[in-house]
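Page 37, top half.
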Amino acid sequence: QVQLVESGGGLVQAGGSLRLSCAASGSIGSINDMGWYRQTPGNQRESVAVITSGASTIYADSVKGRFTVSRDDAKKMVYLQMTSLKPEDTAVYYCNADVRRKFTSLYQSYWGQGTQVTVSS
């Protein structure tokens, strides 16, 4: 089994900062892309930031210049540093990773359970 567990969400005032963390654990052979997505009620989950195994990054236009995604492969973790937060950043944030389990050859997508980020105006 593979598990992703997020932490670091909470309530922050507009203009503030938060750092989200996501730890992957279980029978992991290797991890390819890792990333963060977010979802608000009644809307589809959207990509916020993705980091490849080669450390290339892709950001949604709405967060460019404000959010930074990073990863620590030794610890099997991915982070999202969020600055200059806006009320429209309020959402449940989900961690995602493409993982190859030990003794297998295919990558599968795994999701965390989500962490709430609320930005007050």
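Page 37, bottom half:
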Amino acid sequence: QVQLVESGGGLVQPGGSLRLSCAASGFTFSRYFMYWYRQAPGKERELVATITSSSDTTNYADSVKGRFTISRDNAKNTVYLQMNNLKPEDTAVYYCNAKIRRGNIVSYWGQGTQVTVSS
């Protein structure tokens, strides 16, 4: 079955950095786009970053452009989110996501990893 396992969250001071990882299994990772979302308390889940299957194209929410970088290693079935110059408003639970064709398109989520930016 499809599994997405995030790691790398934590508490960091404003201006600091974190690198999130998402280990994927149960599907042919190299064939699919991968996504990072986040959800802050009391807010809707929002798309943060997208990467194509071959890493040739990435897209970012305006709020993180220039600070976050999504990447992937298809040999390790892992997608990353490098987060630099973190701000308190980046505080959220970060989720890895894959949209996989199983007849219809099915959206799979990891359990999430908490990122807290605070002094």
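Margin note: The longest strand covers residues 92-102.
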